[in-house]
């Protein structure tokens, strides 16, 4: 139940309690915004934020688990209240003179408060922003693809199921295209506007673009270069994996669908967004005679239910000595898609309501090993919430966004190990030889390695999206796409940076925790289940939330203060070795030399100027030069007109004064009779005018569109 207006009431009380926070006169300002006052200010923030955020989260939870107009209205209302709250504290946080403060955490907290995010938008635009977001969510959740008038499929679970299990290229294309038609094109304009407003909010917060804002959350200047470096390190594994899959899919679908020198069509990768390819393991299994046991089938055979899946993941966390989920968790979570026709948002997520142990998970679960592992991941988020819940509310978040994701994922690395699945009775074959191991690692690689970049800008979403896909993943849209079909709209989370960093981090964590648990042998065989030492190490890091800069938390956990890709490479080394040998034997081409989809690499930063591709700044300079030339031309013409006028007058006087000595006139330095000079001047003037007025098409077109 929500308490309408309570947050505003708290704000009002707060105003009464701290009347001194209101600016009285300018001279006392500097003394006033001192460190002691800052601490009191933050205490008040903490108490009020709990109430405001809790109300907002509560209405959000209501909305996503029961999509109705009324619930949407309530959520939007609470969102506006939250924004006003953020503005109130954000503005005041700016007034403190943090440079003189001693306590580092006070500085960091005030800096965090200053970023008020979308609340920086003017009120009507903020309202619009929230509405756009809610509308997209509604479109996305309710979209269906219809087979005929009576049978329609929604994304989860039906269409996902088609993408995962169908091996029929027409059917796959139908589902892939159908979903994009149902969502992408509908969301496109909404999304464009949404991005526009997001950019505006970002700039109002003082950041250049969303990328800069995203990077600021990492408090690390070298992040961009670091990510690029990781990608280079990962490249051999990635290219070899891609090449091998290419060849395997070519074998199955034939040359008319798979061009060995081009990218892999996106609809053939077993997933609506071609990110995880684990569903097509059967087509790309390295040792096809050694088919691994089907864990999903075993789960179904053992009559697993959603409750058991959650209990098992909770058991894993408690075996490490970590905290159990509170009783309210089991009441409030949505584990299955409701069967009474209630509309819900199925996208899996965990939420924190910031009050009274109120955490939960929303998921439309199916009994599969993939869903079991995704519950482990979500329970990782819940564990994080539980560990940092006693901190000041502003630190109740992951050390950085990628940390949050890596925590759940590191547990899935143990939970999906052969050893663990054997222990919980989901596998029966005890021994794994080297061929089984390569098969096993292929499965993990298909599941984990899915790199894509999320820096997508207006006008070029679609183009850029596929260009980036080509660059990083070598995926190609199966049918020619135009800007009209809008792909990113079909996927809500375009946050590749978080994803990629968390990929690297989870293996780094895994290596550390395995070492702590006393694991010997290859990294991919490690299962930290039952290790209290590993659990304590992890728990201690989680307890810090974002109260310390993340390199410090990383150092505490792993002993290293930098993100390192070594563990990831160690984990996959047996697979990489096998892939390299196999690809060499096949004589396969690495990568995708022919970018044969109809999308050429487009350097979107450049603009065309006089048929040259230039930086916008260079082009701007060029236009100024043109403008200056034009101005000089006009002066020349004006000069010519004056001179012509005087020449005409001269020749007129000459006609009347026959006996005067012949005056010389000059044309381009040559002395001649004034009348002749005048004739030539007329011609030159005409030429200049023609040159000036005949605006070349490339200037005309771009002069006016340039801003
Ligand atoms: Zn997550």
TrEMBL record:
Residues that carry a glycan: 66
BP terms from Gene Ontology: positive regulation of systemic arterial blood pressure; proteolysis; regulation of systemic arterial blood pressure by renin-angiotensin
Record CDD domains: M2_ACE
Cofactor note: Binds 1 zinc ion per subunit.
Cofactors named for this entry: Zn(2+); chloride
Membrane-spanning residues: 621-642
Keyword terms, alphabetized: Carboxypeptidase, Disulfide bond, Glycoprotein, Hydrolase, Membrane, Metal-binding, Metalloprotease, Protease, Signal, Transmembrane, Transmembrane helix, Zinc
Family: Belongs to the peptidase M2 family.
Function: Soluble form that is released in blood plasma and other body fluids following proteolytic cleavage in the juxtamembrane stalk region.
Protein name stated in the entry: Angiotensin-converting enzyme
